[in-house]
Write a structure and sequence with these properties.
single chain, 479 residues, mainly alpha, Ammonium transporter fold, 20 helices, 65% helix
Length: 479
């Protein structure tokens, strides 16, 4: 075959000195690697800008900057932690404890360009894809802490939680931990990401304390249109979230993408129907919550169930978390005591647990054999009449795995919050909470003037402006 530079008179001639010199190794599958890099970028876009826009829009105007900035900081901080030590704690081969591997750096070209854990893509692709998962998990935890957590406490919380909580879940379920060896099913993070973030967020919210009373009682979104934009990025980015789990552009990846959107649409419409029947209103915020619960519920089983099961999971994820949020939450004093602004416990912990249970129910044996190299399952519905004990064993393992993830996050998150409270205050002062972004960062989300100053401050700094001029301004611009 002719090489670059063989035909100097052709219009596409490239001098030998500029021709590519990388020779792909036999193990590298370029199609799989291209899809995996795309999937990793899609997962990253769910956080930046997806959750930045979603968080910054769902809160009151005075918390828009702080909420968005918590997500942006976490994304950057997790990347450094992940590459420098957390990735190898989660997926390294040198076992340090039964719960995580030896912490060590991934910054090595020889390592990053070598054959990765999944075989057909290099380690660099695997590291970045798994980083995007770790980052979004921490950002989801932030959803329970918006509107009152001291930003300096958040700065400390992120690396500590990634190191001592997230890595344990990833190692025990996805790497070489005891739950993975026993055969737990978690296709793309229903337990590792969603159950852990929901439980950790609720636990941290308990230790940080609630928002001020006025903010709890009256906290409308500051921009519902932007909120829908952020939600759309989250939904579409989930194609990479679940479609990238096989680390190959194969049939299971295609099935996972279709099931993801099928379940999500069903869940959204179910939640919307529940709102219309009970409250006689079609709530936009409710529709977004139903979208999220559908995405979360299908995640641990996306490429392992048939579409009929994905639709059934959508019905369950649009109704059961709705019930826990709208009914049970109001009946229990403990739920009322803990301030969870974006209901992360219900949308992620409850929906993630539901998805893990559904994986134990509906995982199809043929799909399990295509995805897992060892024997898992099958789902309970495929064992009626024969081998029922195998389905029952799998369900017991799903429940045991959920109990471990929940318990670990309650304990570790509590210890982290207690440690941080000895260094800085977990919660902002009440006086600062009344102000919001300006007190936390000296910045506000919406400025009426080109120089960034609020209109009221312009009036106060210009004593020559007569009061009669102010009276001619629109009401929203007056002092």
């Amino acid at each position: 075959m002719a090489a670059y530079g063989d035909y100097p008179n052709t219009p596409f001639y490239i001098p030998q000195s500029l021709a590519p010199t990388d020779v792909s190794p036999d193990w590298l599958n370029k199609g799989d690697n291209a899809w995996q890099l795309t999937a990793a970028a899609m997962v990253g876009l769910q956080s930046v800008p997806g959750l930045i826009i979603l968080y910054g829009s769902m809160v009151k105007k005075k918390w828009a900057v702080n909420s968005a900035f918590m997500a942006l900081y976490a994304f950057a901080a997790v990347l450094l932690c992940w590459v420098l030590w957390a990735h190898n704690m989660s997926f390294g081969y040198h076992k340090a404890t039964p719960l995580f591997a030896e912490p060590s750096s991934s910054v090595s070209s020889g390592y990053l360009l070598g054959q990765g854990r999944m075989g057909s893509v290099p380690w660099a692709t695997f590291v970045f894809y798994q980083f995007a998962f770790a980052a979004i998990t921490v950002i989801l935890v932030a959803g329970s802490l918006l509107g009152r957590m001291n930003f300096y406490a958040w700065i400390l919380f992120v690396p500590l939680w990634v190191t001592f909580s997230y890595t344990v879940g990833a190692y025990t379920i996805w790497a070489n931990g005891f739950l993975e060896r026993k055969g737990i099913i978690d296709f793309s993070g229903g337990y590792v990401i969603h159950l852990s973030s929901g439980v950790a967020g609720f636990t941290a919210a308990y230790w940080v304390g609630p928002r001020i009373a006025h903010d709890r009682q009256h906290s409308p979104p500051n921009n519902i249109i932007h909120m829908l934009g952020g939600a759309g990025l989250l939904w579409m980015g989930w194609s990479g979230f679940n479609g990238g789990a096989p680390f190959a552009a194969n049939r299971i990846a295609s099935l996972a993408v279709l099931n993801t959107h099928f379940c999500t649409a069903t869940s959204l419409l179910t939640w919307l129907s529940m709102d219309m029947v009970v409250y006689k209103k079609s709530s936009v915020i409710g529709a977004v919550q139903g979208m999220i619960t559908g995405l979360v519920c299908i995640t641990p089983a996306a490429g392992l169930v048939e579409p009929w099961a994905a639709m059934l999971m959508g019905i369950l994820s649009g109704s059961i978390p709705w019930y826990t949020m709208m009914v049970l939450h109001k009946k229990f004093a403990f739920f009322q005591k803990v301030d969870d602004p974006l209901a992360v416990f219900h949308t992620h912990a409850v929906a993630g647990l539901l998805g893990g249970i559904c994986a134990g129910l509906f995982a199809k044996p043929d799909y399990l054999n295509m995805f897992y190299p060892d024997h898992r399952g099958p789902g309970v519905v495929y064992t009626f009449g024969k081998n029922f004990h195998q389905g029952l064993r799998q369900m017991n393992l799903q429940l045991a795995g959920a109990a471990f993830v929940a318990a670990w996050n309650v304990v570790v998150t509590s210890l982290i919050c207690i440690l941080i409270s000895r260094i800085v205050n977990l919660r902002m002062d009440d006086d600062d909470l009344k102000v919001g972004d300006d007190a936390a960062h000296g910045e506000e989300a919406y400025a009426l003037w080109g120089d960034g100053g609020a209109f009221t401050s312009r009036l106060s700094m210009n004593p020559r402006l007569p009061s009669c001029c102010e009276s001619r301004l629109p009401s929203f611009c007056r002092r």
